[in-house]
């Protein structure tokens, strides 16, 4: 099979093709972002291609160093492949509303069905990967090439007395068929006609895997995902995309802490072959706050929203000083310093990194999004859980809104960004009814009024346009949310004029829009920001323009993968997906817009 054929079929070997005499290298490329699927256990996740290859896996937690990382370094990163010569991808699906992924490969002799999942069973360690494969249409091999510490080294490999492969005295591979080790690679050969399975877990778990155990773990996992799905009985407009997005948000959630990650991956490029590559495996106040707004509307028990609020409250116990960092690690730790990884990068997009510089920025809008999320929870439940952290954050906004910050897009240039000021004003106005005293409420409302006066004086152009910051002549896509946050009616003339200019300046066709960046070169090169499509749809809903909103929602959904996952951006020239995946902000924005759309449609009758 030629290299070109292997790439077309989804069997991107990304490094080595094993031969009986040893291993030889092939030139390989990372899979298209649209080909990526996910499994997870709400503690970490793994990324799987349409050909059944696991190309990204961080054991134990989302931001751990990868054990399999060929996604961002095809040669050195490591992967878990299925080598079935002559096979091609024939489709994949999640089983029901679970995150159990079923992938089918078509071979001239028949189909091979692969079921991948991370168990939710209590007896299995977090981050364990289970693979169950149906009868083999022809002989094939499962090939695991682990590369710990983000691909920086070849691990120690040995077989224990049971025949399991031990990786670095820390991980273990158990399988239905004999395991072979050679040249830093673990291989399982499966004869034609036989079913097979394999489990990768932590050695310390001590759990013995066999066919019966896998069946039990699969049933427990499906039952666990069914229980999660019951939180949202939604059956309204766009029901299937809504359920896909709810699954994505649940996959992004660390159930141990309540943190919601921005994405599963790091360093998938916003500009192909460029330097705009970031680590999104952390929890942003901005992104999570916007997701919580949707979850409050779609999950009547508010369990995940309350859990997230508890996560943010727990940050006060880690020694944080006011204000909260805009970004936190999954366990509540501070985000580590940004470090360049010595890897090739996704399709030569370098540098690939871990950590994130945004954690040390002043982002007033992110703090405001947290307070807005708390307001939504308080309004829905008529109680004030974790009021201490909410009030401290609001107090910080009152005392510091005059400071210049990095804005919603984490700019290096500090300014009075309009979207930050608007969201802070809405947050203080919105949380004022829940204060302990009338004096505190008055203080919040007075600051909110001061913010409004500043915006009216400095952030409106002579033509009555909400510009990006004082002195700018442009409108950012975040302005579409001003009516959604409650700052101004959607039918307001200045709002309408701002959106009209936004559509002229930032529209990319196909319902796509660009965000406004201070770096003009980055502005020209990066793709359209998919979230903007749903934000503008939300604006149209607020105006009562439901038909226009429906078109935008449909256009945005059209950029999802076959599994309903959204990336960060879309290349408007090629249509290729760009950026990290799945982008929680995109899924949350769809959910929020659809929730309000469905209500508006029902009210219309």
UniProtKB/TrEMBL annotation:
Transmembrane segments: none annotated. GO terms for molecular function: hydrolase activity, hydrolyzing O-glycosyl compounds. One of its GO terms (biological process) is carbohydrate metabolic process. Keywords: Hydrolase, Plasmid. It comes from the Bacteria. InterPro entries: 6-hairpin_glycosidase_sf, 6hp_glycosidase-like_sf, GH15-like, Trehalase-like_N. Residues 240-538 form the GH15-like domain. Residues 29-163 form the Trehalase-like N-terminal domain. Pfam families: Glyco_hydro_15, TREH_N. This is Glycoside hydrolase family 15 protein. It comes from Lichenicola cladoniae. The lineage of its organism: Bacteria, Pseudomonadati, Pseudomonadota, Alphaproteobacteria, Acetobacterales.
